[in-house]
What we know:
- It is a single chain.
- This protein is mostly helical.
- It has one domain.
- The chain is built from five helices and no strands.
- Helix 2 (about 30-45) packs antiparallel against helix 4 (about 50-75).
- This is DUF1232 domain-containing protein.
- It comes from Massilia litorea.
- Keywords: Membrane, Transmembrane, Transmembrane helix.
Amino acid sequence: MKRIFALWRVVASQDLRVLWFAIRHEKRPGWLLPGLAGLALFAVEPLNFALPVIGVVDEFVLVPLILHGMVKMLPAHVLEGFARSYAGRMRRRRFTS
């Protein structure tokens, strides 16, 4: 169970930030918004409430793996833009702290 929470911590810290940046990027790929909408529907599907064990597998294993796969499929210019933006934020935090 600790490994599953560690996987979610990694996804929550990096992949969700990258996807949030990609959604707001002016040259985002066309598949990104429908893909994230489909993933959101998959994450809150009614089957999660009917079969709780399958819902746990969905939430803690499949959803993070799909999110990570979406990040891997993003074009290089979006990832480079995120790297530049994130590096600038980290420098500002380091100097202000």
